[in-house]
Amino acid sequence: MGQSTFMVEMMEVASILKEATSNSLVILDEIGRGTSTYDGLSIAWAVAEYIADKEKCGAKTLFATHYHELTALEEKLEGVKNYSIAVKEKGEDIIFLRKIISGGTDESYGIHVAKLAGVPKVVTTRANEILRSIERKNVLAGKNNNKEDKASKKQVEGQFDMYNFKLAEIAHEIDKINLDELTPIDALNTLVKIKEKMK
């Protein structure tokens, strides 16, 4: 019909947000994945906040996403609960246990799924190399990459991503401020809000 898949997705999201009520059941899958990472994450985050707000929507919602940062919403928004698919790691392979468990996850298993789908081994091996390279660049300097440190490394990565997202959010808010109209008390209040967001 001449529309991009992302535009169609956004039109569907727009329709859902306009029509959904507290009596609705909403099912959303991978909102925001058709654009840049920060754009997509921002859209998914805002959509989740809107739906969780009982005054704006409050619909019962299943919201599937690979944006690990969104698991933080469980602590920020009333009624939000994280669930994930249980997996069993066996060497370099994984087995999907087809069981839903409480809590989020910091793994996506996309390359494992590509293997299961029959993507040539040379491609999945190269994908793993690229993934490790990207992870090394995003992890704080000095962190080890061995198996024993995997859990703490993933925790640091999640905190680092969340910190970067908060910085981007704050930078956007600062950019909207008209300095010519800002009073000293407004400036102080703005600093207090920024400090709160960084916690």
Task: Describe it.
The chain is of the alpha+beta class and 199 residues long. It has three domains: 1-81, P-loop containing nucleotide triphosphate hydrolases (Rossmann fold, 3-Layer(aba) Sandwich); 83-131, no CATH class; 139-199, no CATH class. Helix content is 51%, strand content 14%. The chain contains seven helices and four strands. The protein has helices spanning 5-19, 37-52, 73-76, 110-116, 121-138, 150-176, 184-197, and strands at residues 25-29, 60-64, 83-90, 93-102. A two-stranded parallel ribbon has the order 1-2. A two-stranded antiparallel sheet has the order 3-4. Helix 2 links the parallel strand 1 (25-29) and strand 2. Helix 4 (110-116) runs antiparallel to helix 5. The longest helix is centred in the C-terminal third of the chain and has 27 residues, at 150-176. It is globular. Mean pLDDT is 82; it is low at 140-145.
